[in-house]
Design a protein that fits this description.
The protein is an alpha+beta fold. The chain contains twelve helices and ten strands. The strands form two sheets. It has a six-stranded antiparallel sheet.
Length: 314
């Protein structure tokens, strides 16, 4: 009868649990209040003491690790991540996020590290893993189990919060290690597809960037497809395969997110915000805003301000 030694597995389980506990401690020590901060370049920390309503925002290429609690990322379908699963995003995306598990006793705590595509490409060349193993269409977002090596590297990132003088030198080194471990993991092909030149991925990346820069301009899909050197149907199909949104839906979400920011941050009225983001029909803007956020523009802004005041007074 074959006897399997369970001790290495038990040691790794204990090691990972100790790392999760350290991650919780270090984020809590850095963030005493709810919200988000960027204590180091490219590193974002989040803390929430209550489950949140869906939040609409933009996210850059990044890896997100949860220390405590859980969150859901909505983009065409649902992606839930927690202390045992990381979220990988490989294209700038407008998304809907919602904190699911959080309390005052056990707040939701997470950190997100930006992944520069140029750095990913550089590491690909250095390691010799330039070509993806598959050429299938790849969605620009996924959730995967956190392994011990990735978690350990993220903990070392968190330790730099207490050593800002060392972070300037060490954070880029640990970031390179994290990218290397992601490339070696089960989502390596996903990262390769969106960092390499070949196939449709570069065209879609350029289309995403064009829409982000010119979101307030009329979308002429035929001209965009021509500039990218692909057919209109090819652009529509592959754009949605990567982002889970059509180009029109993607642009609409960018416009509405920016309008919301303008009303909240610059105190614009709905009509002025609508015009700034490319709408020339206020009633059309109001309908699309309500369709995305659930309520008309000014009511939504009032609700957000009241929620912020209530949170600040806790």
């Amino acid at each position: 009868m074959r006897v399997i030694d369970q001790r290495p597995l038990e040691r790794e389980t204990q090691w990972m649990q100790a790392n999760r506990e350290e991650l919780v401690e270090r984020i809590e020590r850095t963030m005493r209040q709810d919200g988000s901060v960027q204590p180091l370049p490219g590193l974002h920390l989040y803390r929430h003491s209550i489950p949140l309503e869906p939040v609409y925002s933009l996210v850059e290429p990044s890896v997100c690790v949860v220390a405590q609690g859980s969150k859901e990322f909505l983009l065409g379908e649902s992606y839930r991540y927690d202390p045992f699963h990381y979220l990988l995003v490989t294209v700038n995306l407008p998304y809907v996020g919602q904190v699911l598990e959080a309390s005052k006793e056990r707040p939701f705590l997470s950190l997100r590290l930006n992944l520069a595509p140029a750095l990913v490409g550089e590491i690909l060349v250095e390691t010799g893993h330039v070509s993806p193993r598959t050429h299938a269409e790849v969605r620009a977002i996924t959730v995967s189990p956190v392994d011990g090596s990735l978690l350990d590297a993220m903990v070392r990132v968190a330790r730099l919060l207490d050593e800002p003088s060392e972070a300037r030198l060490l954070l880029p080194l640990v970031t390179r290690e994290i990218i290397y471990r992601l490339l070696k993991g089960e989502q390596g092909d996903r990262l390769r597809h969106l960092a390499l030149l070949g196939g449709y991925t570069p065209s879609i990346a350029r289309a995403v960037e064009r829409l982000r820069q010119d979101f307030d301009q009329p979308l002429r899909i035929e001209r965009l497809a021509h500039e990218l050197g692909i057919s209109v149907s090819g652009l529509q199909h592959h754009f949605k395969a990567v982002t889970a949104l059509s180009p029109v839906q993607f642009q609409k979400r960018l416009r509405l997110l920016e309008a919301r920011r303008l009303m909240l941050g610059e105190d614009l009225d709905a009509a002025s915000a609508a015009y700034r983001v490319g709408y020339h029909d206020a009633s059309h803007f109001n309908r699309e805003y309500k369709s995305l956020f659930g309520v008309p523009p000014m009511r939504d802004v009032q609700r957000l301000r009241e929620a912020a005041l209530a949170q600040a007074s806790q």
